[in-house]
Amino acid sequence: MVSLRQLFLQHQAQTSDFPLMIEVEKAEGIYMYGSEGQRYIDLISGIGVSNVGHRHPKVIRAIHDQLDKYMHLMVYGEFVQAPQVQLAHALSETLPKRLNNTYLLNSGAEAVEGALKLAKRYTGRTELISCYNAYHGSTQGALSMNGSESFKNAFRPLLPDVRHIRYNSIEDLEQITERTAAVLIETVQGEAGVRTPENDYLRRLRERCHQTGTLLILDEIQCGFGRTGTFWAFEQFGIEPDILVCAKGMGGGMPIGAFIAPQEIMAAFKTDPILGHCSTFGGHPVSCAASLATLQVIQEEHLLEGVAQKAALIKELLVHPRIKQIRNQGLMMAAEFESFEVLKAVIDQAILNGVLTDWFLFCDNSMRIAPPLTITEEQIREACQIILTSIEEAVA
Ligand SMILES: Cc1ncc(COP(=O)(O)O)c(C=O)c1O
Prior knowledge:
alpha/beta; Aspartate Aminotransferase, domain 1; 7-stranded mixed sheet
C-alpha cells in the first residue's frame, strides 16, 4: 500500500527538498503525537500559532458551538455576524482607544496586503518602507516588503516604490519623508532571529512618522497575542501604531488575520472606489469564534503573567558552551549557535529525542524557541534537558 508519506511527496506541493516529514496523529497542549506513538514537545507552537497550546478545550468548545450555528454565510462585511462583531469589539478592548476598527482576513500576508493598500489609499502616497531582514509574508505585496533579496529577487518585478531601512538605525529614519505612505515594521523582528528594538528606536520612528504624515504599521503577526508577555508587544515600548496587523496566534489554531486602524482611516476603503478591499472568507465565523475564545483564554488564565518568568527559566537552563547567546522578548526566543551546521545537527537530534525546535528564515544559526504560553515549569525543565542532551549527542 502507498504510504501517506509517499503520497505527501507525490501530490502535495513541496517548497524544499528537506521537509521535516513528521507525521502527527494528534496534538494536545504542548505535545504532538506521531503515527508510531512518538511524543514531541512543541517548542515552536507551529511557528508562533499555538500560544494557548494545541486544542485548548475552550477554543474547541467555541468552534463546536459555532459549527452548530453557521459557517460561511456571505462575503466579508455585508452581514452582521456575531462572531466577527464580538471579536472586533474584544480586540478594540485590548487596544488604545484610537484603534477601534478591525478588518478580518484569513492569514498574515493577506492582512499585510490590506494594511498596505489602506495606507496608500488614505495618504494618497505611494512609497512604502520596511526593514532589512523583515518578514511580512509571501504574497507579492508582502514579499516586496520583505528584507531579504535572496528570497525575493527571483520573483521580480515586485511592488515599485519600496525601500528598506536598517532596523534600529536612527540615522536611517531620515529616509522617511513626506513621500512615504507607510513604514511597515515588526515590533520585534521574528525571522531576523528575534531582534528587539533598542535605544528608544520605536519612539524615534513614531516621531518621524508623525513629522512626515507617514502611517506607522506595526506587524505583530508573530509577536502579538501574548507572545512577548504583554497582549501586544508595542505596549512595552511606549508607542501606538496607526495600523496594527495580526494573525498566527490570534486564531488559537484556526486560520485568521486582521488589520486594525482608526475608523477614520479605515473609511478610506468605502469610497472611490467602493469595496476598496474585499474578501470572501475574511473573518470566517468559526475562526472568529476560535479567536475570541483564544483572546479570553489569554486573559482569563492570566497567561501573560507567566511569560517573563518562563523565559527567564529557559535562559537559566539552556547554558552550554555551544550556545553563544539567547535573545528574547518574552517567549519569543532565539538561541544562537556557532553555525547552521551545528544548529541543524542539534535540531535533528532533538526531534529524535522528542523536542521540536527550528531555525529562522533569515538567521540560520539560531534556534527558534517559542513554546505555547501554557507550558509549565516542569515541562520547560524537561524540554531544556532534552536540548542539552541533544547538543551533547549531536556535536560532542
Ligand atoms: C512577522 C510576520 N509577518 C507576516 C507573516 C506572514 O503570515 P502568514 O504566513 O500567515 O501569511 C509572518 C509569518 O511567519 C510573520 O512572522
